[in-house]
Specification:
This protein is an alpha+beta fold. The protein has 12 helices and 9 strands. It has a 5-stranded antiparallel sheet with strand order 1-2-3-5-4, sandwiched between helices. A two-stranded antiparallel ribbon has the order 6-9. The radius of gyration is 25 Å and the shape is globular.
Length: about 400
């Protein structure tokens, strides 16, 4: 159905008749069908009904994802929107789009949540966009710097999606709106050619952002936020490290030994702090676009690459247990990066790189232990990687 609007005598009926005749459409005349059309009461009823159906459709998309988290609470949505009710969230997002983008939501494409809440929408004006809402812990100032760097990369066509608006208030947090990009597909980073492409892609980001390093307010990645504690605050409330400490001492031991080896060395760079297969789309084995740009960080280059070497294979959207690299694959990722870099890391830089590989692997193993129990005998898990390799993880 297509509605034509306009004032009395604007030519709506003439245009409608011509469109119907040209395209073989059925003409629906409100003047003939609604006796009270003169006061527009019936039209308001129809418009309200259409709007409700659109919100219901978006709500069904949101609800489908929230059911995936059950029986755990929807921690992210509760933090951002103050509600885990899908229809309430849909209404908040619709109001956000009307106020900030000038058009209501016509339908939902997808909804996902992890650290933030990401919703794909089609607006009534035809645009397809992605609204990424962030928890209050992500300040507006931080997100503004992310947008600045992301836009810089997008202008240079270095994998980044174009930012349309934001950061703007939504619920209790802020949201950034990006163009919806549907190109390429995910790839298996256990394949050497995909691993190499990911390593080269990360170097391309580092290289492109080099002019921004001195002036950026970006801080280090989440794993560097532990301070004097062994672990940072886990990225999700699903993972309670304190309550699950018993039995995980062997993971804590590797993490503690890794931290002792983290002597800061190497140049500071800007990079993607969660650079992995799940966030990148490929065409013919080449990365063409990437997502999750709020993971941008300013980090020592060896530390960035050590952390990336731990996680580049992971795709948590699939249930496969084969998320972790083997130690040989992690070492190969570092070599692939060095090849793209055109220079090998020094011995001191390699020591930091290995320490960050071990620490990041231990952190993800600890999340797995807290969220799913003991999996140290299951190949492909991070617990198995840490259990089987132990101190060899330090040597890349």
């Amino acid at each position: 159905m297509c509605w034509l609007g306009g004032g009395s005598g604007a030519g709506k009926s003439t245009i409608a008749r011509r469109l119907a005749a040209k395209h073989g459409l059925r003409l629906y005349s409100t003047d003939e069908a609604m006796a009270d059309h003169g006061d527009h009461g019936g039209l308001r009823t129809v418009h309200s009904s259409c709007m409700n159906s659109r919100i219901d459709q978006l709500a069904s998309v949101i609800a489908a994802h929230l059911r995936e988290w059950e029986p755990s609470p929807a921690f992210v949505e509760l933090a951002i929107f103050g509600s885990a009710d899908a229809r309430s969230i849909a209404r908040i997002l619709n109001a956000f789009c009307m106020q900030n983008l000038g058009s209501p939501v016509a339908g939902g494409l997808f909804h996902q949540s992890s650290i933030g809440s990401v919703t794909g929408v089609v607006l009534e004006d035809g645009r397809s966009l992605v609204v990424k809402a962030h928890q209050p812990s992500h300040s507006r100032e931080f997100l503004a710097e992310v947008v600045r760097v992301q836009s810089y990369l997008a202008e240079r066509r270095v994998f980044a999606t174009k930012v349309v608006a934001g950061p703007l208030p939504v619920g209790r947090g802020h949201a950034v709106v990006e163009e919806f990009v549907d190109i390429g597909s995910k790839a298996d980073a256990h394949r050497p050619e995909i691993r190499g492409a990911l390593a080269a892609g990360l170097h391309a980001i580092v290289q492109a952002c080099a002019p921004l390093v001195d002036g950026t307010s970006l801080g280090p990645g989440v794993l560097a936020s532990a301070g004097n504690a062994l672990w940072p605050t886990p990225h999700s409330k699903l993972f309670d490290f304190t309550a699950t400490a018993k039995g995980a001492e062997w993971i804590d031991d590797i993490a503690a030994r890794a931290r002792e080896r983290m002597n800061p060395i190497g140049k500071s760079v800007i990079g993607h702090g969660d650079w992995r297969a799940e966030h990148v789309r490929f065409l013919t084995n080449k990365p063409v676009v990437a997502f999750d740009w709020d993971s941008l960080c300013r980090e020592r280059e060896p530390a960035l690459i050590g952390a990336a070497a731990h996680g580049f294979c992971a795709n948590w959207a699939q249930g496969d247990k084969r998320q972790a690299p083997s130690l040989d694959e992690a070492r190969a990722f570092v070599r692939d990066y060095e090849r793209a870099r055109g220079k090998m890391f020094s011995a001191e830089e390699r020591r930091l790189c290995g320490a960050c590989l071990a620490y990041a692997s231990a952190y993800t193993a600890r999340c797995g232990y807290a969220g799913g129990g003991d999996e140290h005998e299951t190949p492909g898990t991070f617990q198995h990687l840490v259990w089987s390799e132990r101190s060899d993880l330090f040597n890349v």
